[in-house]
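User: I'm writing a tutorial on reading structure tokens. Could you give me a worked example: one chain, its sequence, then its tokens, then a sentence or two explaining what the tokens reveal?
Assistant: Sure. Here is the example chain.
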Amino acid sequence: MGVNWMRPERLRETRSQRFFYAMFLPLGVLANLGLGVFILTGLHPASWPEWLQVGTGALCCVIAGWLAAAAWSKSYWHRSMARQVATWRRIADAFFAWIEEAPVPPEALRSLRSSLEEAVPSSERR
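And here are its predicted structure tokens:
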């Protein structure tokens, strides 16, 4: 089975994560932005309660921006981490291919294996 190193491997997402980022987050952004714009459109604040309404509308717009930024950030970092994992896998493959060809004493290989097992416990391996 060949691996395409040019295309980063996708990290698995749960069904609830896909629902949250595909449906809930965009709807939340639109709802907050719509509410904020609705509140701010007809206001001409003269007293402090009217200024509280302006503040409420502005807060809704800030929340909408924050949610949109969270969605963008999640997408960006997901792609970046997938690329980083693919790069480190290529580095490890090259390193171990080189080690297999180099004349290394068996004791050094056992030491390397135990060091790797300490660094990555068996519960975290694929």
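What the tokens reveal: DSSP finds three helices and no strands in the chain. The chain has a mean pLDDT of 78.
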